């Protein structure tokens, strides 16, 4: 009985450790079978399978009728697209829905009925799955001949409910919507007011039997439109941007704080699990914590855990979940010869990296110079042999630099630096390409035509070598602090933009496509020409005939800012209600999403710069280097709590 209780305790602690590391909630069952199900559900293979299922459901829109599997979406020269048989995509969709049902069942069982009733996302998950199954049954009973599929409107929900980042983004957008609505209402009032003023001032009157504008001087038009643009474009639109950013400010910090509060609760629960069981010996607890932290190098063993495990426990939690720089580079190899030791000191010095950056810059300058000189020459006058010989000299230096660094740091020490892996891979690739060029074309006395030979011509291989050399020059980024800060900010921006991409691309475009495909499919068949119109501008491939073409059209409306041509064409071919559709898409994408995108960029940049300002002070007071991504979490965790113990 004691052994079973210790095994359950170990499983509970291991599960809480996993929840702490991944910022997951701890409100779930803790019996033995539930813990096994929990570990199985959050295993890598199950989560990857669920993500693959969501991707398959979303990608079905490209295959379902109307299919996007065609060479061109231009109705003038469109080839017959692939139309799957009725039941093919429906069978795949039903398999995905069954997987979603299993996912819902497991989540509901793990958290229990009480937590399920409080979780709005799971309730919505249940409703969406039920509606999708009902619509699927109706579709099959109608032999796939229905025009509107309601379940296609609901598919983006599967992606949203499975991403915590998207949920936080939607919560922030929900908080911002009242202020956005007030400004949009003010914009509508502005449009109505100036519309009425324009109709009154510039109304047409009949003078001597002909129609004429009552106020013809150009000054009146200028004053009217300048006033309209200043108030609308420069005041109200910028006010909208300011309001959105003001509401969006602190989004990342609040997101981190929410995750940290969840982690604090998990740490407290893990501590209570270990502290409340008197039957557990110190040796047993020490072994389990060592197993949990085995993936991290630890120079201090936890032998003191037998007497008092509070501080070591928190130390292991911090090291395990916050990754407080437990990684160390392998020691330098030891050489007995004084000459080799002296060479090791020279080649391991930072100035060797500076010299390598200078040589890489010189190589890029040489390539640019040769390209500029060859730009004025004809194809027959160009000489690629000189550039290849220059590149070979630089590549030999890169090889020398790689070899001496391996000598100084050792093989494992060399590979422990990411910059060295980047340099070494490109150096070997460049050397292989250069040797291939010299063997294939027997430079510099080659009789081959450089424009055509083998799989790749000489010019193509030379361009490839030059591109790799220029790409290798990116090695200077980590060595320049401000440039490294900007680069890391861009990487963080890409990570945070995943939520925006999911909501915008998947949700908005999918919903707007279904609405447009239902009412505006196959209407671009009039091939007449009129200057400045949809037909004259050649926008034929941009239509709502299939999902891929609809994505391109909606992107053009959002970015190209020529949406009046599409609105005019579709209002002529369908009804005037299509204007409301395009105005709604423009307000959603160009107004709201673009401003939210700007607000996110500002927030990420400010958050990154503020975080970097803590690093010098933190490194003076600790022997551990805290990564920037986890610095805020570390600062919040080390803040004393109101309970009867402190976390650090």
UniProtKB/TrEMBL annotation:
Subcellular location: Membrane
Domain Ion transport span(s) in chain numbering: 82-203, 362-603
Membrane-spanning intervals of the chain: 41-63, 84-110, 122-142, 180-203, 223-245, 349-373, 385-412, 424-443, 455-477, 497-515, 547-565, 585-607
Coiled coil start-end: none
Top-level taxon of the source organism: Eukaryota
Membrane-topology descriptor: Multi-pass membrane protein
GO molecular function: intracellularly phosphatidylinositol-3,5-bisphosphate-gated monatomic cation channel activity; ligand-gated sodium channel activity; voltage-gated channel activity
GO BP terms, alphabetized: calcium-mediated signaling; endocytosis involved in viral entry into host cell
SUPFAM superfamilies in the cross-refs: Voltage-gated potassium channels
Keywords noted in UniProt: Membrane, Transmembrane, Transmembrane helix
Gene Ontology CC: one annotated term: lysosomal membrane
Gene3D superfamilies: Voltage-gated potassium channels. Chain C (1.20.120.350)
Pfam families: Ion_trans
Name used for this protein in its record: Ion transport domain-containing protein
Species of origin: Amphiprion ocellaris (Clown anemonefish)
